[in-house]
Write a structure and sequence with these properties.
single chain, mainly beta, six-stranded antiparallel beta sheet, 146 residues, 14% helix, four-stranded antiparallel beta sheet
């Protein structure tokens, strides 16, 4: 399915749709995401509850199958200062597939901005639920931890 607009929101069914919405959001934000990764738990599950604190630069995903919490990206470095809050979809569901994207500094592989896009497993809404400036170094290493 291609992205479809319904009212103020975008809907899609694939991780490609979620990535496309993330890219569109990032372009409008002035820091285009060029590298992406989908979240997957060690147990194999791809759906999570998400908590973030954009001021502190912290994201925590909790597996909907096994309950394992995972600090995303470099969140461990900033957790002490954070007060993460949970996210819910407009349909009130709190379980999502997650796609992370980063923009990098021109001519480098260093992360400049971090985006977390969600795909609601209930209603198929897709959108960027959190983003922040992020000085995390190598993009590949950062995205390996989302």
């Amino acid at each position: 399915m291609a992205l479809t607009k319904k009212g103020d929101f975008m809907y899609g069914t694939t991780s490609g749709d979620t990535q496309a919405e993330l890219r569109s959001y990032s372009v409008a934000n002035g820091h285009e995401a060029t590298r992406f990764a989908s979240s997957k738990c060690d147990c194999g599950c791809r759906t999570f509850a998400l908590q973030t604190d954009e001021e502190a630069g912290v994201a925590i995903r909790t597996c909907s199958d096994c309950g394992q919490e995972h600090l995303m990206g470099d969140s461990e470095d900033y957790l002490e200062e954070a007060t993460p809050e949970g996210h819910a979809c407009v349909c009130e569901n709190e379980v999502f597939e997650l796609v992370s994207g980063v923009s990098v500094y021109k001519g480098t592989h260093d992360v400049r901005w971090y985006y977390i896009a969600c795909h609601c497993v209930e209603c198929n809404l897709v959108g960027v639920f959190a983003d922040w400036k992020c000085e995390a170094g190598d993009a590949a290493a950062f995205l390996a931890k989302v």
